[in-house]
Amino acid sequence: MPLKSKAQRRKFAELLVNGKISPETFEEWNRSTGSAELPERIHPKAVAKRKRKTKSKRARKSKARR
């Protein structure tokens, strides 16, 4: 299974250091990836949309009375 991103490579290296995966597994995945230039992340994090300010109920009611 080739690695798909730099972030994924870092995560699996961390798992290797913590002993959660074997060195053989990590090396196999690293070899299958080869020397390909990997993106930082596969899916960039979504940019949060700015919330629109809403008028208070009082302002809406007074505007409706006019």
Kindly describe this structure.
There is one protein chain. The chain is mainly alpha-helical. It has a domain at 1-30. The protein is built from three helices and no strands. It has helices at residues 6-17, 23-33, 57-65. The longest helix is centred in the first third of the chain and has 12 residues, at 6-17. The radius of gyration is 25 Å and the shape is rod-shaped. The N and C termini lie far apart (67 Å). The mean pLDDT is 84.
Number of helices: 3
For this structure, the quaternary state is single chain
Q: Assign the structural class, choosing from mainly alpha, mainly beta, alpha/beta, alpha+beta, or little secondary structure.
A: mainly alpha
The share of residues in helices is 40-55%
Major sheet size, sense and barrel closure? none
Query: What percentage of the residues does DSSP assign to strands (E)?
Result: under 5%
| β-strand number | 0
- Name the helix and strand elements from N-terminus to C-terminus, one letter apiece: HHH
What overall form do the CA principal axes indicate?
Answer: rod-shaped
Extract low-pLDDT stretches: none
From the alpha carbons, calculate the radius of gyration and give it in angstroms.
Answer: 25 Å
First-last Cα distance: 67 Å
Mean of residue pLDDT values: 84
